Structure formats: structure tokens, C-alpha cells
Amino acid sequence: MFRKISILSGLAIMAVAISPVRAPAQVTDNCPVTVEQIAYNMTLQIDAGQQLDPNQVFAVGRDASVYCPDRYNAQGLAAGLLLRVYAAAQTPKQKKDILQYVMRAVSLNDLNYDKSKETLIKQPDGSTKPLYTHFRVTGYLEDVIAPAFVKLAASGEDMSALIAPDMTSCPYAQDQQERAANEADFLEDSADGMKPKEITAVADRIKALKKVCTEQNARLTSALGELYKKAATQLISAGNDAQKYRGDLASMPIFEKAAASVERAKPYMQAQLALPDDGTITDIDDIQSHTELQLLQFERFLTRYEIAMTCRKTQGSFIQITDPCPTP
């Protein structure tokens, strides 16, 4: 039984079995002159409900991306087509493989962006219009790609291919590598409610970007600080709930993880406080004020945690029945 899906502005490709993702053979001079028109036409066919085979959609999107790396509008259209197929994928492995192609297209769309090069595409009525994909692709990062990355991490999928820890250069180039900071912000925003082990994949991706996208060091540092604060805050809250409803035996292992997460967060929080007010981050005063307050709260938590743990190590369990140790 087929089921309809809708993604972004389009509708109606069907969730049928998708062939395994395979890279095309060797990349050659196989990029057609009309690649943008071909990809645009496929998009129109999907929107009109005339194209229902995700394998065909995938083939057009993948080939446009792989064979036309220097055509930024082709990359933008490819990203859109591949994201439509992403929703039809039936396993985390398929989704990860497709998302890897998408992220490659997003990178090439930015690296090769040239606003002086206009791409005209023909519409169904015979008229032409210029094609603009760069802004739209940044929207894909926020609306689809970052949440998809987070969901895949939560599914337990190995994320190393998407994290790309061995990158040697920034995958983004425009506006002082602005899209790297955008991606980090979108990932951090999408990580609400994630467990700390799942946040690790998001943090590792931001760290990989931070290593090579040096022009956005301040904003990437800030994103890491916010991410680790989020993880620590979630654990402290979970520990408080466990203490309230289930007692010390349930809460202390959670508080132990919370303390470790706080320690992980502190260096990035200190770096946030040292960020220069040079225009690279908006509302720098708000960020620093918030960070100062949260750092103070975390340091107080760590003090309470050490007191509680020392008590448990030195005061026997029998004594704790009548004279219980404090909780963080």
C-alpha cells in the first residue's frame, strides 16, 4: 500500500522501496548544459503529481550534484530533489546515505555561488525566469537538514560520514563562511530534548566545522557553549525530577552525568564570555549576561554535588537513613 508524503513546497511522491544509494561511476564531463532545466522540470513534475517514483527523482538529483559540482544552481535544485526523496526513505541507513548527498550539494551550492552568473529556466508557459537557489538552500538547512541530522543521531545511526571529522577545508565560503555558523545554530536549535549521548553527534559536527571554518570561530564557539549548556541543564532537571519522585538512588547517577556535562560545558562558556564585540555575533551583551548567570548556577550545582558525593563516601548508608546526605 502506497502512502503519500509531502515535503517542503511539493507533494505526492510515494514511499516505495528506494534502491540503495550508490555513487555514480567515475565523474566525467557528463554534466549536461541544461542540467538546471532538467532538475527544475523534475521538481515541477513532482509538484503536479506527475512523478511518483522516488528512484527517478533520486537519480536526477544525485547526478546533477555529482556531475555538475561547479554549477551552484544545479546543486541547489539537487538538494531540493534529494530532500523530497529523503522523506520516502524507509530505513535510517537509506536516510543517512541520501542526507550525505544533500549535505554535499549544500556545500557545493555555497562554495561555487556566483551572483554574477544568472541561470534562466523555462517555465511551462514558455516564459523564462532567473533561478535563485542560494537563499532557499540555507532554508533547507534550517527546516529539514538540521532536524534530520538530529533525528538520525537519535536513532543510533553511525554519524561519522555526516560529521566529517577529517575535513581539511571549510565546506562553505560565502560571506565569511556564514553558512557554517547557520548550520551550527540550526543544529543546536534542533537538539532540544536530545539525550547527552545524542548531543555528542551534534557537538562533533560543530567541532568539525569549527576546526576548518575559522572565520566563524566566535559563532561556532557560541553554538557549542549553548549546546553543552542545554545538555547539562536537561540532566540537572532530570536529576531533580528523579530525586523528587524516586529518591537518591535514582537521582545520583543522573547528577553524576550532569556534573560531567557541566564540566564539558564550562570551557565553551568561558570562551563565550571572552568573545569580542566585533559584530560577528549579534546581541553579544545578552549572550554574555546569560552565560555569566548560567555559569554561576552551574558552579553552585558543582559545589552542591561535591558536598553530596563526599557525604555519601564518608557517611555510611545506615547513618544516612536518619541523617540523609544533601542532594545537588
Structural account:
By secondary structure, the chain is mainly alpha-helical. Helices cover 66% and strands 5% of the residues. The strands form 2 sheets. Strands 1-2 form a two-stranded antiparallel sheet. It has a two-stranded antiparallel ribbon with strand order 3-4. A hairpin with a 2-residue loop joins strand 1 and strand 2 (10-14). Helix 1 (35-47) runs parallel beside helix 3 and helix 10 runs antiparallel to helix 11. Mean pLDDT is 86; it is low at 1-28.
Mean pLDDT: 86
Oligomer: single chain
Inertia-based shape: elongated
Q: Give helix % range.
A: 55-70%
The H/E string reads EEHHHHEEHHHHHHHH
Could you tell me the strand content as a percent range?
under 5%
Instruction: Please give the number of β-strands.
Output: 4
Strand order, largest beta sheet: 1-2
Instruction: Assign the structural class, choosing from mainly alpha, mainly beta, alpha/beta, alpha+beta, or little secondary structure.
Output: mainly alpha
Distance between the termini: 53 Å
Count the DSSP helices.
12
Give the low-confidence spans.
1-28
Major pleated sheet: 2 strands, antiparallel
Radius of gyration: 24 Å
